[in-house]
Each structure stands twice: as C-alpha cells, then as structure tokens.
C-alpha cells in the first residue's frame, strides 16, 4: 500500500477490523519509511450478476425488485420484513454461488417461490399466481392441489 504522505510503497498493518456493516475491512497502517499512520478500507470486489429477462434483454440483478415482489405477495400477512430480507439474501447468495454470470429471470422467480412456500403459503400462492400468470381458475386450483399434496406429504 502506497503511503499518502511520502509515497513509499511499503507499510505494515497496525490494526484490522470489520466495519459496522461487515462489508469492508478497516486497516490502520504505518509507513515503513516515514512512520506516519493512515487508514485504508478493503472491499470485496464482486462481478455483476446479469439477469436474462423473458424478452431476452439483460439487466443487472436488483435484489430490491425481488424483495418488492415478495413484500407485495405478503401484504396483510404476518410476515416480518427481516424474514423476507433474509430470504432475498439467500436467493442472491444461491445465484452468486452458482458461478453463473448470467441467470434467467425464471430461475429467480422459482427461488423466490421456494422461499415463500416455506415462509407463508398464502403469500406463496399470491406470488405464484402472478409469476406463473394463471389464465383461469383451473390453473390456480392445480397449483393449490400441488401445494396441498406436498403439504400432506410433509406431515403438516
């Protein structure tokens, strides 16, 4: 690390700790040459995650959009916001851990439905009805039957 005072390229780390958000590391350094101290911040560099939409257009992944859809599905339901935020973090981590640089939007929708299914069944059905674009009551009932049969299989 280059000293901001004398320009010397070697320094030693005196103290190192995560910031409040734990997304960066704060380091106190001391220049080997002039002895002055300075602070640096280390940030993890991430590559952007690109979403391939239905119309084949591409845009950067936005966790806010996923959270917004899940919040709408949970409207007037007893689901705390922090539970949904945690679910969105899990979805993003799953996508990033897949090591794919581009991910189809349907994969994100499927992951969101999977999370909502475990959080709140009503919210799951609401999300699924919009996501899967149910055309009539029969397709809606088919999804409910699938939910009920998997629920019976889980012993609930």
Automatic annotation (TrEMBL):
<dbReference type="GO" id="GO:0045892">
    <property type="term" value="P:negative regulation of DNA-templated transcription"/>
</dbReference>
<comment type="function">
    <text>Negatively regulates transcription of bacterial ribonucleotide reductase nrd genes and operons by binding to NrdR-boxes.</text>
</comment>
<feature type="domain" description="ATP-cone">
    <location>
        <begin position="49"/>
        <end position="139"/>
    </location>
</feature>
<keyword id="KW-0479">Metal-binding</keyword>
<keyword id="KW-0238">DNA-binding</keyword>
<dbReference type="Pfam" id="PF03477">
    <property type="entry name" value="ATP-cone"/>
</dbReference>
<keyword id="KW-0067">ATP-binding</keyword>
<keyword id="KW-0863">Zinc-finger</keyword>
<dbReference type="GO" id="GO:0003677">
    <property type="term" value="F:DNA binding"/>
</dbReference>
<dbReference type="GO" id="GO:0005524">
    <property type="term" value="F:ATP binding"/>
</dbReference>
<keyword id="KW-0547">Nucleotide-binding</keyword>
<dbReference type="Pfam" id="PF22811">
    <property type="entry name" value="Zn_ribbon_NrdR"/>
</dbReference>
<protein>
    <recommendedName>
        <fullName>Transcriptional repressor NrdR</fullName>
    </recommendedName>
</protein>
<keyword id="KW-0862">Zinc</keyword>
<keyword id="KW-0804">Transcription</keyword>
<keyword id="KW-0678">Repressor</keyword>
<comment type="similarity">
    <text>Belongs to the NrdR family.</text>
</comment>
<dbReference type="InterPro" id="IPR055173">
    <property type="entry name" value="NrdR-like_N"/>
</dbReference>
<feature type="zinc finger region">
    <location>
        <begin position="3"/>
        <end position="34"/>
    </location>
</feature>
<dbReference type="InterPro" id="IPR003796">
    <property type="entry name" value="RNR_NrdR-like"/>
</dbReference>
<dbReference type="GO" id="GO:0008270">
    <property type="term" value="F:zinc ion binding"/>
</dbReference>
<dbReference type="InterPro" id="IPR005144">
    <property type="entry name" value="ATP-cone_dom"/>
</dbReference>
<keyword id="KW-0805">Transcription regulation</keyword>
């Amino acid at each position: 690390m280059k000293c901001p005072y004398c320009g010397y390229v070697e320094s030693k780390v005196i103290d190192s700790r995560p910031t409040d958000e734990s997304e960066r590391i704060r380091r106190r350094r001391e220049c080997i040459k002039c002895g002055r101290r300075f602070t640096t911040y280390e940030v993890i560099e991430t590559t952007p995650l690109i979403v391939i939409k239905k119309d084949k257009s591409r845009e950067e992944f936005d966790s806010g959009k996923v959270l917004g859809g899940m919040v709408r599905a949970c409207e007037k339901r007893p689901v705390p916001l922090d539970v949904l935020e945690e679910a969105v973090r899990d979805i993003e981590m799953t996508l990033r851990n897949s090591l794919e640089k581009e991910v189809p939007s349907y994969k994100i929708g499927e992951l969101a439905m999977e999370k909502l299914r475990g959080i709140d069944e009503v919210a799951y059905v609401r999300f699924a009805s919009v996501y899967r674009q149910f055309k009539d009551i029969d397709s809606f009932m088919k999804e409910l039957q699938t939910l009920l049969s998997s629920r019976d299989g889980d012993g609930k």
